[in-house]
C-alpha cells in the first residue's frame, strides 16, 4: 500500500527552499488556477493549455518554478539512493550521459557524478528564477527577449532528472510507494513541454514511451 505523500516526500529532504509566489500577484493567481485544474482530475493535456487571455510567458514562468519545486522534492527524497558510489556518472542508462556546463565554473561540458550534477543543476536554476532580470516579479516589468530560451534550457535539464530517476532508481520509487505520484508529475511535465515545444524531441528519447 502506498504511503501518504507527507511520508513519501518529506519536506525536509528538499535540496533547496521552495520558491513561492507572492500572494496578490497575477502569477500567484495563475499558480492557484493551475493547481486547481490539476487537482480537479482534468485530463493533463487540457490542464497545461494556456488559459484564455493570459500571458504565455507568465504561464511558462509559473510552471517552470512549480516544476523546479516538485522535481527538487522528488530528487531530494531519492538522494539517499543516488550516491557517488552508485551513480559515478550522471546518465540515463548506458546510452545517455549528461555533462555539466554553466559558462562560469564549468565552461566546457564536464563529466560529473549524478549527485554533483544535481547539486549544480539546482543551484543554477535557483539562481536563474531568483534573478529579477530573467524572472521579473514586479508589475509592468517585461520578460527579457531570451526568456523562453532560458526556460527551454532549464526544462531540458530538469527532464534529465526524470531520466536518471526512472532508469536508475525506479525500484526505490516503487519501494517508497511513490510511483503514482512521480508518474503524474512526469506526465504533467511532459504534456507541458510538448504543448509549448519547450524541449527538443531528441532530449525526450530516453523516456519516449513513458507517457503511454
TrEMBL record:
Superkingdom of origin: Eukaryota
Entry keyword annotation includes Kinase: yes
SMART domains cross-referenced by the UniProt entry: Mob1_phocein (SM01388)
KW Translocase (keyword) present: no
Annotated keywords: Kinase, Metal-binding, Transferase, Zinc
InterPro entries linked to this entry: MOB_kinase_act_fam (IPR005301), MOB_kinase_act_sf (IPR036703)
Positions annotated to bind Zn(2+): 82, 87, 164, 169
Example of a GO MF term: kinase activity
Protein name: MOB3C kinase
Protein's organism: Eurystomus gularis
Amino acid at each position: 500500500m502506498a504511503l501518504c505523500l507527507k511520508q513519501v516526500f518529506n519536506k525536509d529532504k528538499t535540496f533547496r527552499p521552495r520558491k513561492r509566489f507572492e500572494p496578490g500577484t497575477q502569477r500567484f493567481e495563475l499558480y492557484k488556477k493551475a493547481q486547481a485544474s490539476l487537482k480537479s482530475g482534468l485530463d493533463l493535456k487540457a490542464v497545461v493549455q494556456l488559459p484564455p487571455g493570459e500571458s504565455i510567458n507568465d504561464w511558462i514562468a509559473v510552471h517552470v518554478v512549480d516544476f523546479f519545486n516538485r522535481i527538487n522534492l522528488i530528487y531530494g527524497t531519492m538522494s539517499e539512493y543516488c550516491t557517488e558510489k552508485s551513480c559515478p556518472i550522471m546518465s540515463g542508462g548506458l546510452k545517455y550521459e549528461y555533462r555539466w556546463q554553466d559558462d562560469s565554473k564549468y565552461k566546457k561540458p564536464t563529466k560529473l557524478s549524478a549527485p554533483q550534477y544535481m547539486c549544480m543543476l539546482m543551484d543554477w536554476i535557483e539562481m536563474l528564477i531568483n534573478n529579477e532580470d530573467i524572472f521579473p516579479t514586479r508589475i509592468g516589468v517585461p520578460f527579457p527577449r531570451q526568456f523562453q530560451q532560458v526556460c527551454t534550457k532549464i526544462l531540458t535539464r530538469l527532464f534529465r532528472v526524470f531520466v536518471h530517476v526512472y532508469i536508475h532508481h525506479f525500484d526505490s520509487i516503487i519501494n517508497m510507494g511513490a510511483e503514482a505520484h512521480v508518474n503524474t508529475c512526469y506526465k504533467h511535465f511532459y504534456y507541458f513541454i510538448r504543448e509549448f515545444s519547450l524541449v527538443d524531441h531528441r532530449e525526450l528519447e530516453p523516456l519516449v514511451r513513458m507517457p503511454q
